[in-house]
Write a structure and sequence with these properties.
Keywords: ATP-binding, Cell inner membrane, Cell membrane, Membrane, Nucleotide-binding, Translocase, Transport. The chain is of the alpha/beta class. Helix content is 33%, strand content 27%. The protein has a domain of 130 residues: Rossmann fold (3-Layer(aba) Sandwich). It is built from nine helices and ten strands. The longest helix has 16 residues.
């Protein structure tokens, strides 16, 4: 399985503001690999995640293609068939993966029963989400807890493509290492994983990412291994590696 963006341009015009948020982006997320997407806040990373999961706003004007396993995905009905079971998303704000009116545990159990792929115990163990938080509502969780709950929810259907938007942003260093190890194991089992992250230091010290791509103002400006990107003359790209070893 491979997910791809091919010369994808996304323009948003709300009537009050107009902006090209992705500009001729081409990016491949292949099976068995972790692809890390780097970029400053506001450069379009979350919009790229939305494009790969069928979550672009209805007002978006789109050219180019999104392909999943070589097949262009062109309408919302097609995305409804893919979302969850084939393509999973860990959103940047984990709380948005759940409804406010029910406990997280109840929603995870419902997802387990719907998909019947991974068991709840397996998904929660992989995401490091504690069972003693099951009876809490989403807003009662810490930022780190709800992010791990969102990862568990994404893993339950065992999607072949997993898009993780800042999966370790709210975690301490030890938990972040464990979550990256889970994503590495998931990719090694055959999944295509795209991780959107600012945690470049951890990526470079662990070597968990197979490939990195750098997004700047809606465009991919560089792609390659950590060592390849670190050696580039572009100060924007090199800036991500200043604090890494």
């Amino acid at each position: 399985m491979i997910a791809e963006l091919c010369e994808l341009t996304v323009h948003i015009d709300t009537g009050r503001w107009s902006e090209t948020v992705l500009d001729a982006v081409s990016l491949a997320v292949p099976a068995g690999r972790i692809t890390a997407l780097l970029g400053e806040s506001g450069c379009g990373k979350s919009m790229l995640a939305a494009a790969l999961t069928g979550g672009l706003p209805e007002s978006a004007q789109v050219t180019g293609e999104v392909l999943v396993d070589g097949v262009p995905v062109r309408d919302r009905r097609h995305w409804r068939r893919l979302r969850g079971r084939t393509v999973g998303l860990v959103p940047q704000a984990g709380v948005t993966a759940f409804s406010a009116g029910h406990t997280v545990g109840a929603q995870l159990r419902e997802r387990e029963n719907r998909y019947r792929r991974w068991t709840l115990d397996r998904a929660c163990a992989a995401a490091r989400y504690p069972a003693d938080a099951f009876d809490l509502h989403p807003h009662q969780h810490s930022g780190g807890q709800i992010q791990r709950a969102a990862l568990a929810a994404a893993l339950l259907p065992a999607p072949e493509v997993l898009i993780a938007d800042e999966p370790t942003a709210s975690l301490d260093a030890d938990l972040a290492h464990e979550v990256w190890a889970t994503l590495r194991q998931y990719a090694d089992a055959g999944a295509a994983v795209l991780a959107i992250t600012q945690d470049v230091s951890l990526l470079t010290t662990t070597g968990v990412a197979d490939r990195m791509a750098v997004l700047r103002e809606g465009r991919i400006t560089a792609a390659g291994s950590a060592s390849e990107l670190r050696s580039l003359a572009d100060p924007y790209v090199r800036g991500f590696f200043l604090d890494s070893v």
